[in-house]
Each structure stands twice: as C-alpha cells, then as structure tokens.
C-alpha cells in the first residue's frame, strides 16, 4: 500500500510541476522536428501537379528512424526522402495530392510513424480544392535541367469548360527569376483555352528551384489557381564525381589523383586557378595551360602528421566564366603502429617536405549548431 501511495504522489507531483516523461506525451517531441504540422494546396486545376516537401530535421542527439508513413485517403500519398536521420540531419516527406482521379474539396491526413529512439506518431492534415472545370496539360511547368546563363521557356495548356466569358486576368510570380504570361488560343461553345508561357531567366542561381505561379481568373468563388514550376539550374562546367576520395594514407605520404573538368557544350575552355578552402598547404595542383573541351587536372595531397578524417572543398575558376566549379575531397590519415617509415601501395610515396607551392585559402569558420540531448 505504501508503494502504491508513493507512486501516485510521484506522478501527481510530476503533472503539477510539468515534468512528465517524454513518453507520457507521445508525439510531442517528434512534432518539434517538422517545419509545419499541416499543409493546404489551395485551389488547383484538374491534372495539376500538387506536391509539397515537408522538411524534417533531427534536433536530437540520438538517431531518428521513420518506420513507415500512412495516409487516410487514396487521394494522398507520402514518401520520406530517407528513413534514418543522424543528429542535425535534414530530410523531407514528399506529400502528393492526386488531382487526376479526384475533384472538389479533399481533406486527408498523413501520419509519420517513428520507432527510434522511441515510438511517436505525427499527424499532418492535408487539404486541397480540385477544380473539375479547369485542366492543365502538362500538370506543371517542368524545365528539367537548364544551364545557368541561358534563358529557358516552357508552355502549359490551360483549358476551361463552362462559361464562354471565362478569363484569366493576371499571372502572379513571386520569384523575380520567373516570368509568366498567358495567350488565349480558343474561345467558344463553352470552352476557353490559354497557353501559359513560363520563362526562367539565365541569372537564376544554381540548384533546384520549385516555385508556384498563381492564375487570377474572373471566377467569383475561387478566382486563384496554382501552377507549379520545377527547374534545376546547373553549371556549364562540372567535376564528376563531385567527391574525390584519396582513401587512407599514413602521415607524410602524398598521393596524386587525376580530376576531370568538363563542359556540357563540349567547347574548349581554359582554367584560371584551383583553390582549396581549408587545406593549409596540403595540396599541389598541376594546371593545364591550353584550352580544351576536357581538362585532366593532377591533384596531389600530402597527408598531415595528425590522424583523422580531412574534408575540403576545391574551387575551380574558369576563364571568362563567372560561376566557379566546386567539388569535395576526403582523406583519412592513419598513424602506423610503429615509428618505422612506411610506404603505401601504388603511387603513394613518403616525402620529407613538400616542395610544390601549396594552393589554399583562409580556413572557413564552421557555424555553431544546437543539439538537444534526447527527446
């Protein structure tokens, strides 16, 4: 009886003080990882792409594992970009609304089930109003990959069934790098057709761009219709692969790797310089002096005396090209168990002092990060 009374007193005190264990409030700790806890696609046309990436960040020290994701309606699908997140790692849950098979108001939910470090379920309400009288073909302005510096254009057909007087009055783009306009192509017999012309400027920054245009119509009830724009802006030049791995070396050993720098247009170009972000004189670079469609750059690293894993970013500047090319390097340094001189296999050769001129830039200062101890 005393034990029972003591246990009741303990939990009662915990409630009063607000110190309930995390597992007494399932899902509360997990909700802190999501950038938002619901999503509304708004008004979309029939056949339009309705996708949204819900960001999830592991703000805790333990690894977080997503066991599975379920939805409450066949109109909605959800897929995580990855199921295991290390501390401070970021991923996303891609939410999709089916606008081909469904219409009118659709209310659904997505539940993300987590089984590590402890069980939790996070429910995300998802909503959309799908118009059956407006159809987009294709469902989004899909640009795929475009080269930075070159303008690109795509068309989306907008078809309305109903009023002959139906009109798109305006197209709104909130991104200065995306311009859009409409051109009427047909009107009559209860049908109105437009071409939505979408342009992406050559000055658009590198990377994936996902934006939303808004068509403003003369409808009284739901005048706004969303149209998605997807584009990936890539550099004209690249270094495949984007990570150059020097493997494992002993201190003082140097190793050379041949790195290819290529242009997509296959036109000759020249390399101005190659710089390392924080290697502090560990790299030697042999630059080609002429112009050619593909450059093979010899990149040599000298392993430092300290053991550990070294990561760096290398920047390649192309003559007459404003956007530099970057790639990552990685090296693991392992100190031999004895002090005797060790020679690694292959082309790795021990050296006393590097004589080549090092290529380096001032070391970057890493940003501070806050990590919670446990959910």
Topology of this protein?
Layout: H1 2-17, H2 28-31, E1 39-46, E2 51-57, E3 64-71, E4 76-80, E5 84-85, E6 90-97, E7 104-116, E8 120-137, E9 141-147, E10 152-161, E11 168-172, E12 178-188, E13 191-200, E14 207-217, E15 224-234, E16 237-238, E17 243-249, E18 253-263, E19 271-276, E20 283-286, E21 294-302, E22 308-318, E23 325-333, E24 349-350
Q: Care to describe what's here?
A:
With 375 residues, this protein is mainly β. It contains two helices and 24 strands. The protein has helices at 2-17, 28-31, and strands spanning 39-46, 51-57, 64-71, 76-80, 84-85, 90-97, 104-116, 120-137, 141-147, 152-161, 168-172, 178-188, 191-200, 207-217, 224-234, 237-238, 243-249, 253-263, 271-276, 283-286, 294-302, 308-318, 325-333, 349-350. The strands form five sheets. Strands 1, 3, 5, 7, 8, 10, 12 and 13 form an eight-stranded mixed sheet that branches. Strands 16, 18, 20, 21 and 24 form a five-stranded antiparallel sheet that branches. A four-stranded mixed sheet has the order 9-15-14-11, with no helix packed on it. A hairpin with a 2-residue loop joins strand 12 (178-188) and strand 13 (191-200).
């Amino acid at each position: 009886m005393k034990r029972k009374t003591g246990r009741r007193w303990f939990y009662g005190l915990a409630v009063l003080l607000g110190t309930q264990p995390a597992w007494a409030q399932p899902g509360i700790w997990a909700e802190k990882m999501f950038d938002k806890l619901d999503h509304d696609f708004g008004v979309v046309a029939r056949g339009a792409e309705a996708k949204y990436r819900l960001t999830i960040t592991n703000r805790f020290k333990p690894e977080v594992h997503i066991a599975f994701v379920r939805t409450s309606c066949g109109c909605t699908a959800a897929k995580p970009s990855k199921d295991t997140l290390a501390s401070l790692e970021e991923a996303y849950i891609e939410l999709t609304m089916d606008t081909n098979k469904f219409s009118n108001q659709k209310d659904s939910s997505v539940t993300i089930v987590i089984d590590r470090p402890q069980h939790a379920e996070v429910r995300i309400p998802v909503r959309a109003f799908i118009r059956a009288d407006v159809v987009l073909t294709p469902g989004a302005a899909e640009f795929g990959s475009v080269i930075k510096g070159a303008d690109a254009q795509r068309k989306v057909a907008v078809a309305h069934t109903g009023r002959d007087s139906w009109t798109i009055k305006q197209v709104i783009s909130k991104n200065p790098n995306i311009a859009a306009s409409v051109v009427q192509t047909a009107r009559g017999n209860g049908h109105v057709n437009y071409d939505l012309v979408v342009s992406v400027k050559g000055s658009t920054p590198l990377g994936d761009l996902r934006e939303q245009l808004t068509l403003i119509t003369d409808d009284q009830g739901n005048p706004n219709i969303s149209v998605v724009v997807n584009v990936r802006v890539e550099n004209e030049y690249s270094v495949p692969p984007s990570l150059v791995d020097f493997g494992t070396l002993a201190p003082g050993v140097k190793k050379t790797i041949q790195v290819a720098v290529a242009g997509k247009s296959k036109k000759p170009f020249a390399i101005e310089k190659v710089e390392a972000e924080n290697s502090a004189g560990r790299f030697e670079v042999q630059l080609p002096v002429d112009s050619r469609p593909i450059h093979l750059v010899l990149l040599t690293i000298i392993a430092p005396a300290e053991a550990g894993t070294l990561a760096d970013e290398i920047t390649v500047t192309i003559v007459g090209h404003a956007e530099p090319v970057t790639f990552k390097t990685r090296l693991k340094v392992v100190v031999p168990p004895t002090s005797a001189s060790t020679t690694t296999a292959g082309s790795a050769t021990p050296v006393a002092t590097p004589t080549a001129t090092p290529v380096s830039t001032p070391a970057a200062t890493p940003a501070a990060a806050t990590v919670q101890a446990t959910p």
